[in-house]
Design a protein that fits this description.
The chain is mainly α and about 80 residues long. Helix content is about 90%, strand content about 0%. The chain is built from 2 helices and no strands.
């Protein structure tokens, strides 16, 4: 085996590794976007739940700021216990 063959094999191996790195980076970015979408959906679900609770409590249209803050703090505490 001569030096040229050895260099060609090393370059081919390096190219395969670089291609794999590119694919891994692309997959990582795709997964990050999926995680962001899932987190956003989770946030929207929490907002919808809070809105429904506000409506059930009768404070959706006519509310006092302090009442809403207390309500939200209690809701957050319940969510933290459930998560």
């Amino acid at each position: 085996m001569n030096v040229m063959d050895c260099l060609a094999r090393q370059e081919a191996r390096l190219k395969r590794i670089e291609d794999q790195l590119v694919r891994s980076s692309q997959e990582t970015r795709k997964l990050e976007r999926q995680i962001q979408r899932l987190n956003q959906q989770k946030r929207y679900q929490k907002l919808i739940k809070a809105g429904l609770l506000f409506e059930e409590a009768g404070i959706l249209d006519n509310y006092d700021r302090e009442t809403v803050l207390i309500f939200l703090k209690q809701l957050q505490a319940q969510q933290e216990k459930g998560d």
